[in-house]
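Quick entry, no commentary yet.
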Amino acid sequence: MPGFTLDEVRERTLKERDSWLTVSLVDPVAVRLVRLVANRTSITPNQLTVVALFLGLGAAVCFALGYRQFLALGAVLYILCFLVDCVDGKLARLTGSESLFGSWMDYVSDRFRVLVCAVALMGGQYVVSEEVAPDSNPVWFVWLALAVVFLDMLRYLNALQVYKVRREMRSHLAAALERARATLSMLEPEDDDTASATGGGGRTMSDGGEQAVLRHGIGVLEQILHSQNEREARNHRTAGKQPDLTLPKVDLHQEFRSRFPWYQRFWSALNARRIRTHLVGGIEFQLAVFVVAPLAVAVLGATSLIGWITAAAGVLLLAFEIAIIYKLWLSTRDFFRVVDGIDGALRFSGPSDGAEESRDSGSDSDSGSQTTLRQWREAEPHDGTRHRTAPDPG
């Protein structure tokens, strides 16, 4: 039976966008290892997760010893640990062996590895510093270990919450679209032209009335809610995670882009290379702390470099996390503008109790119709491609 080709492995395992470190350094090696493992062995993704965990524990032991040669060895082991950790998710996607338990194993082992390595690295440097200078009090290594663990947990907890909020917004907008379609179908004029014209048993409709409002609203929602294709849905899944119920993809970053017009060009340039705009995330932070910093100390011999490199990586990580939170806040503002517009149209287009009531409330209805139309007209494209409430994905 023929095995997987390299092109098949790339097609089925590479994410649409990923960390710049993963894209440039890890993926070229990982896809070849995945092909080798899938074609020549019966190793499972969960077994690779265990191997990655033990490599990480081996790196922690080297870090705990604290001396320069062990720091270099620990950094090498951590690189291997990270590579194997990337391979297990790709192997799961390639062979269709994703599982909820595998997702749990991968997540927990990653967090445990960071915790143990942070304590070992900073604890080892604490001991070595006291041996070299007995009068010193390198207590800042303790605080540094706590900071590393905190920042790692902040990054991943924030990612989970941002995903949850965006998913809820997509779900709500999808429901609003269905309500708008259902309401529009009920407002369609009946065959009885006389009844429609007189208002008896029905409602008079005009091109500038409720139907026009709802049709335009549906058009706006359909532009910002478009179904994800199979490749995108697969690439956005976490390794080993069972696919969720498919929801339309929604993009609500228009206000962010209007404030930062250069962002679209920046996003497009990185997207063409499969690189995400979140340039300093969990991957970059871990490799800076557990690879770059130990190697710098091993080569140059200055233990203070661990503190400076960790602090710089932590500041950059926090900066990008704050940017994500800021984008999310602006997205919620766009979201509520869209939802308020369609809900206003649906409230105005509710059932009438008859022509008399319609006449009594005619002036109010005209005012509500104009307000609703104005809301939707604000969402019309200004440049032929983008809506105020419907930007491209970021």
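second:
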Amino acid sequence: MAIVAVGRATRRMRGRNSMAPVLLVPLLLLVMAARVSSRTTTYTGSSSSTTAGVRASATPAPPKKHVSGRKQRVPALVVFGDSIVDPGNNNAISTIVRADFAPYGHDFGADHRPTGRFCNGRIPTDFIASRLGIKPLLPAYLAPNLTAHDLLTGVSFASGGTGYDPLTAQLASVISMTDQLRMFEEYKAKVRAAAGDAALSEILARGVFAVCAGSDDVANTYFTMGARSSYSHASYASLIVAHATAFLDGLLAAGARRVALISMPPIGCVPSQRTLSGGMGRECSPGHNEIAELVNAGMGTAVDSLRAKHPGARVVLMDIYGFLLDMMVRPEGYGFKESTLGCCGTGMMEVAVLCNGVTSAVCGDVEEYLFWDSYHPTEKAYRILVDFVYDNYLKKLIA
């Protein structure tokens, strides 16, 4: 697979306002992703026993009682979604939508290594797991070194590039939300085999199940690829809501009792979408944000219906749209200097394989940037966002 050469950029690069050469980059990236496989990538599960892929342990280690000095009230964090919460599942599948190479991981741990996280460091679910007092990092379910303790304290099934719309995962050759739910059933069997029915029941009753998806439906499937061109903004938002509702209904039916749904962000304001749809001034794209707002409104109604259908379950819609938009338009209020460009390369288009150690320079001070690449926030931005989510939503969910 050829990598599009975007040049070795610097932060003072004069050519930033000349967008013509880069407008085809996301199209090429997504077309290449769609052609990695002639069919949808489907997760088929373990080929052997239900404990396959888990490092053997005679007696699974009990979950740690304290992380960062906080008492543990939640036994596990289990996550579904896209690249915002994918800690490396895409490393294990055939797709170019991945981040297991430099400069990803630029600030991750003492060895600054890429892990498959689409970020310079930790991602939201790492911070959430820590704030919940579970563990400092949430591993990928498909990680080759997964242990029984990892299973008992939670994993992420998320796959970068996926969405609620089934077509989104197909175009990117990544793990669909439906297949993530199938993986969850396999996970339950592994937990039961490792620690018994009581441990599984505890996770289902008191664990936190977080879901984050939808951005790739809007940015990639609808706008960049034009794969749902017959849909209006409103009708496509309704399609996303319908698929998201079906996923959440399936998750609740599978036993999850505490579900946290992360809302759509103002996707039209991320650097790549500014470049593609924001005109010469690279303003926020109103069409992207209109769909995001419609989805969020629809999900508010859907959550109410799901609560009524599944009495005893707690389902919360964590609305990050307004808070993240404020970070984007008032970056200085959160300790940032740049919110319209990413730190990687030119900051306008580089993401996934386009943000690499060969063609992409890294900005001088990552701490000044809201975005790491042209699509994903920095570790610093995620930390601030998770503090907001925890204080305003998660505290109530686990109370």
